[in-house]
Specification:
The chain is mainly α. The protein has one domain (about 1-125, about 150-255). The chain has helices spanning about 1-25, 35-65, 70-90, 100-105, 110-120, 130-140, 155-175, 180-205, 210-215, 215-235, 240-250, 250-265, 270-299. Helix 1 packs antiparallel against helix 10 (about 215-235), helix 3 (about 70-90) packs across helix 8 and helix 6 (about 130-140) packs antiparallel against helix 13 (about 270-299).
Amino acid sequence: MTKSLSIVCALVTTFIWGTAFIAQDTGMDNIGPLTFNAARFLVGFIAILPFALLFEKKKIISQINVNKKKFFKYLVFMGFSLFLGTSLQQASLQYTNVANAAFFTVFYVPLVPLLLFFMYSQKVHWSIWPSIGLCVYGVYLLSNFSDAEIMKGDALVILCSLFWAFHIIFAGKFMKVFDIPMFYAALQAIFVATLSIISAYTFEDVVLSNILLESSSIIYAGVLSGGIAFTLQMFAQKNIEEAPAAIIYSLEGVFAVIAAWIILDQILDIDNIIGCILILMAVIFSQLAPEINKTKYKL
């Protein structure tokens, strides 16, 4: 039951990320990517902190005291990974199209098990590899990448996927030790917001009136993606291994396409539909295959 709840949290997280992709894309008409990121995560921090203090206040200090060094080490690792991943993703949208971005972002799916092996000597269940294949090909069909032009922003997206992979890994490792997901998501949000504010003032023109023009996109991406989704991610990775979690998160592309279809009236062709089905099959297979093996061993 606990793992089922975690899978639901991961799916809701992915749905929010996918639908927020439109807000991230349209929210830079008047501001730069770093300014958008700063506003987005500041809103996320404000949205999630009251709930963290309400539900986790009594155990925050005791949880930090479990291992202070590891707690702050993961905060720095996850904070920088998330800052670099989201900043590069936002910047890439200025130079590449959604099709290319959707295809190259999914590279974090095969990167997660590879990094787990090289960083922690951690092996993954054999079902992960065919699931990765289905996932990558599904996104290939979903994004219409075969008809897309290679753009300079693609390099930013590939680099972004590396930092997303690191973030997924560190989130999983953190949740194996600590149990304050809401408070940690709030800390992570203010960490990223602070780095983004410093970077925005260094590299962009920060104008309050322009930020207010993008308020609806910022609030949506901030409250739902920067706040709720990253909190649910922490809940999800309490009971789901990092590699299967990455495959579930790849459904972000499916939800993004469906949202674009509903909101932007973009038509789904047969390749898009097949891509959605392949990614869904990859997610189901990555979750069911290990459980079937466990059942066989018990019998």
